[in-house]
Amino acid sequence: MPLSRVNLSDPVSLRGYAHPLRMALIGLLRRQGPMTATRAAEHLGESVPSCSFHLRQLAKYGLAERVPGADGRERPWRATAAVTTWDEGTEDPEMRAATDQLSAVLLARYVRRAEDFLARRAQEPTAWRAVTGFSDALLHVTPDELAELTRRMDALLAEYDDRTDPAARPDGTRPVALFQMLMPIEDGPAAAPAAPPAAGRGRPGEDDPSPDDHARADD
């Protein structure tokens, strides 16, 4: 079954989501389910007032909402959908600026997660070390071909959508972040010579400094 989605379709909501703590809060609610601002603050190492403020801001943009609490006192927050989407193909200059701002925050979040993983990778079990890591590939495609490739990758990933329900997860599963970055590269007279293929999981490609979603952020 397709994951529920909330679409950000205006510059105000895009800029409202483009905040590291707000993204962390939504990711936490999506992974662990409803929780109070106090509990969220404990998980993220943030202050309760800060988490409370940013959860209220997320509610303004339709990304979070209050739900009844078990004890009838403080009501927890929950994410309104499992996936956030937005349109990267807009012609509107203000929307383009807002999506670029959001992408910059996402990129910083991806880099921080990758650095955290590298810092602890030596302690990972051999089985997980063997199937995780970084790789890249250089493709020569048209816009239509890249769009079709993205659709095919999305269809493959959708096979795991039902595992948002903990009861549907096989023993031994862990949350794994898959970052998708699709970007044309510029070949000019000063371009560096091609490097040897990069080692890593998947198909190796050029070692070029070349992930939520065709604009999709699950976390």
What's the layout of helices and strands?
Layout: E1 5-8, H1 11-17, H2 20-32, H3 37-44, H4 48-60, E2 64-66, E3 77-79, E4 83-86, H5 93-120, H6 126-131, H7 143-158, E5 216-217
Which features characterize this protein?
mainly alpha; 7 helices; three-stranded mixed beta sheet; 219 residues; two-stranded antiparallel sheet
Counting DSSP E segments of at least 2 residues, the number of strands comes to 5
Stretches where pLDDT falls below 50 for ≥5 residues? 191-216
Radius of gyration: 19 Å
State the share of residues found in helices, binned by percent. 40-55%
Taken in chain order, the helices and strands follow as: EHHHHEEEHHHE
Indicate the structural class.
Answer: mainly alpha
Strand order of the largest sheet: 1-4-5
What value does the average pLDDT take?
84
Beta-strand residue fraction: 5-15%
Distance between the termini: 19 Å
Overall, the morphology is globular
Largest sheet, in brief, is: 3 strands, mixed
Count up the helices. 7
